Amino acid sequence: MRETGPRRGWTRFLAPTLTLVALLAIWEAAVRLGRVPDQVLPSPSQIVQATFDNLDDLTPATAITGMEGFLGFLLASVLGLVTGLAIHAWRTLHDAIYPLIAGAQMIPLITIAPLFVIWFGFEPLGKVIIVAVFALFPIVVQTCRGLDAVPPFYQDVALNCGATKAWALWHVKLRVAARQVFGGLRISAAYAFATAATSEYLGARNGLGIWLQSAFNSFRTSLIFSATLVIIILTAILLALITLVERLLLGGPGED
């Protein structure tokens, strides 16, 4: 019998939580019992301790990367939604720009980031644009595919009731395709802060990328894990915000 309601929600939350706790306990025990040096692999407790001991330096670095990742994702969301709508409505535009957007995703970050340093210097603006470029494609693709998959009768009913094609596209087809659009947003959000940190690593004044570079140069492995932990937390927060917005706009699963 399939679980439903609050019980199923608790099960979905509890199962991965217990798995994570078990993995962390195994990691902690393996490091301590095996007497693994801190520089090779710190234990979870050492990573947490190092994180709290360096909060004064980690906090401003997190703020910079968080701002770059969030603004880049926000820019990609707006541009991706508008572009997806446009290339769905005009196939000529689709043929003209879709290959370019797809091609941009094939460019390795390590090759394009130095160009943005040359163009924008070490300022956060260049990192925001890099995040937007690399976050754009999944949103465009999922928006366009979601709209293409909407059965024609949705638009036909709206047009027969006197709606314009633009109104039907925005208020009817986009509403039906919204779940897939949010899927594209989640894919982009998963990489936004990691992209920002990587671009900082290749050229910036501050941020988690510079933090990682400093930790690597001084062989402080625990601080590398600290930056990784912060990026995971930032990503989780952004994904939670997307889920919240989706629920506010569309309701929970099965409520469409």
What do these coordinates show?
The structure is a single chain. By secondary structure, this protein is mainly alpha-helical. It has a single domain (57-250), classed as MetI-like fold (Orthogonal Bundle). The protein has 11 helices and no strands. The relative contact order is 0.13. The mean pLDDT is 85.
Topology:
Layout: H1 5-34, H2 44-53, H3 55-89, H4 91-104, H5 109-120, H6 124-148, H7 152-160, H8 165-176, H9 178-201, H10 208-217, H11 221-250
Helix pairs in contact: 2-11, 3-4, 3-6, 3-9, 3-10, 3-11, 5-6, 6-9, 7-8, 9-10, 9-11, 10-11
Number of domains: 1
Q: What helical percentage do the residues reach?
A: over 70%
How would you sum up the major sheet?
none
Strand content: under 5%
Mean pLDDT rating:
85
Please provide the count of β strands: 0
Query: What is the fold named in CATH at topology level?
Result: MetI-like fold
Counting helices, strands and paired strands, the structural category is: mainly alpha
Number of helices: 11
Q: What's the alpha carbon Rg, rounded to whole Å?
A: 22 Å
Primary descriptors:
MetI-like fold, single chain, 256 residues, 82% helix, mainly alpha
In a few lines, what is going on in this structure?
The protein is mainly alpha-helical. It has helices spanning 5-34, 44-53, 55-89, 91-104, 109-120, 124-148, 152-160, 165-176, 178-201, 208-217, 221-250. It is globular, with a radius of gyration of 22 Å.
